[in-house]
Amino acid sequence: MTAHKIAVIPGDGIGVAVTESALEVATVVLPGSRFEATTMPWSCDYYLETGRMMPENGIEILRGFDAIFLGAVGWPAKVPDAVSLHGLLLPIRKAFVQYANIRPHRLLPGVEGPLRTSDFDILCIRENTEGEYSGAGGRVHRGTADEVAVETAVFTRTGVERILRFGFEQARQRSGRLASVTKSNAQQYSMVFWDEVTQELAAEYPEVNVTPYHVDAICARMVMAPETLDVIVASNLFGDILTDLGAAIQGGLGFAASANINPTGNAPSMFEPVHGSAPDIADQGMANPIAAIWSLAMMLEHLGETEAAKQVMAAVEGTTASGVGCVSGAQSTNEITQAILAALG
Ligand code: IPM
Ligand code: MN
């Protein structure tokens, strides 16, 4: 078998340390002949040196890889977020049509969330290429009293249908329950359109029980009755917000993993922890590497390394069950990583 070629972008802040942890885990579960990592220095420091977050042909460089593993992007004291994220993270999601952003929200053994219940297992599927993140808009009359800023959400039939179909497929493989999220009581064009496409697809998936929710109502439900939810499918911005809430109920951002998937396989998919660069705790060695290591497991699964992915999750779960990595700040990044490596044997 030839090696999986992985582009690794540690990026900024705690992204660097948690990526190192994930790579250590990868080299233990897969022999070098099956895993070949190439690290890219693309980051805010790279921007300060070159004036770009990645080279001009960065997308073409990445296209040759089987998958991308990313730590975090952003360090607002060095580069404004709107520059760094539009220079590195967001263009990759769009250019490679990674339209399904998949984020699992469940409590690992031993982790205490803020809710009274630990009985939930939610899979959020976030549209990742259009919607409120379309990038369509502009500003006129800058700096004057007449200044106008417009940022238009764009919902295409192609984009809406493919993410909803992905949601139906996931629901079919799990409990058969799908929550489709809009705000169609207030937004009468795009969100009503989303509801209509949901109903069209529902006819094709009679085995899936689909419930439309408004985004405000599902926020409350995720806190009050998360056990009633299974697969959630939402637009780009709604999915962004819901998955920080999902991270919170699973114990914090240190546990929130994600996969940016191109389901057609005609371009690389990207795997990243949800937490971001966290400049306030960067370089302290205290970041929880579990979100990154869980994201690695999602990457291994995507690459067809099902056994290795299972081993990684079993080691993570064994580690948290033993009380290591459960509470942020209780152990260092290195202590948690070593415990997971030891659990791998
Ligand atoms: C996420 C992040 C990004 C997003 C930011 C950093 C642009 O919050 O992956 O959830 O909004 O997609
Ligand atoms: Mn987010």
Overall description:
With 345 residues, the protein is α/β, with parallel strands linked by helices. The protein folds into 2 domains: 1-100 and 260-345, Isopropylmalate Dehydrogenase (3-Layer(aba) Sandwich); 114-249, Isopropylmalate Dehydrogenase (3-Layer(aba) Sandwich), CATH 3.40.718.10. It is built from 12 helices and 12 strands. The protein has helices at residues 14-29, 44-50, 58-63, 81-87, 89-95, 157-173, 190-204, 215-224, 236-249, 290-302, 306-321, 333-344, and strands at residues 4-11, 35-39, 67-72, 100-106, 121-127, 131-140, 148-154, 177-182, 209-214, 231-234, 257-261, 269-273. Strands 2-1-3-12-11-4-5-10-8-9 form a 10-stranded mixed beta sheet, with helices on both faces. Strand 8, helix 7 (190-204) and strand 9 form a beta-alpha-beta unit. Helix 1 (14-29) packs parallel to helix 12. The model has no long low-confidence stretch (mean pLDDT 97). Bound molecules: 3-isopropylmalic acid and manganese (II) ion. Residues 85, 89, 240, 274, 276 line the site of 3-isopropylmalic acid. 3-isopropylmalic acid binds at residues 85, 89, 240, 274, 276.
